[in-house]
Automatic annotation (TrEMBL):
InterPro entries: Adenyl_kinase_AK6, P-loop_NTPase. Residues 119-129 are annotated as: LID. Its EC number is 2.7.4.3. HAMAP family: Adenylate_kinase_AK6 (MF_00039). It is found in: Cytoplasm; Nucleus. GO terms for molecular function: AMP kinase activity; ATP binding; ATP hydrolysis activity. Broad-specificity nucleoside monophosphate (NMP) kinase that catalyzes the reversible transfer of the terminal phosphate group between nucleoside triphosphates and monophosphates. Has also ATPase activity. Involved in the late cytoplasmic maturation steps of the 40S ribosomal particles, specifically 18S rRNA maturation. While NMP activity is not required for ribosome maturation, ATPase activity is. Associates transiently with small ribosomal subunit protein uS11. ATP hydrolysis breaks the interaction with uS11. The lineage of its organism: Eukaryota, Sar, Stramenopiles, Ochrophyta, Bacillariophyta. Interacts with small ribosomal subunit protein uS11. Not a structural component of 43S pre-ribosomes, but transiently interacts with them by binding to uS11. This is Adenylate kinase isoenzyme 6 homolog. ATP binds at residues 19, 21-23, 120.
Amino acid sequence: MADETERRRPNILVTGTPGVGKTATAAMLAERLGLQHINVGDIIKQHKCYDGHDDALDTHILDEDKLLDLMEAMFQKCAADNIGIVADYHSCELFPERWFDLILVLRANTTILFDRLTERGYNDNKRSENMEAEIMQVVLDEARESYDVDIVQELPSNTKEDMEANVERCRAWAEQWVKDNT
């Protein structure tokens, strides 16, 4: 992959518990900042990056090596084409630290999150596990343990106004990143 000093556009990871608004936020960021949006969940499904299924949680078991190999090629191509990336996924610890310049950890009020997960049709086990993960701030702790804490930002994601404010804040950050790195 292109050395960080060679990149002219930032790479951002939007992460958080399922249902906090990662994909919607990432899509808005990519559109407003002119970056490439990578929905990691879609990549996993499209390229079958899994080794079986967990019936209790109604989810696939991730093949991390296959996913990371595919994403490495995407990051290399985007860097070569001078395109930054906004990726979104519910976990962050598996991604190399060198890939991202900013980690946005979206958080939601548990009442709002419960309703969102119920609307998605999550079964009781899957909903309960995700609610517990949000309450225990599992994704935030994972991000702080996996990346330099200076690039990890915890942001509320309860309303459309929160999302707009998060996108605007990130836009200002990205403009400064470009000035500092070109």
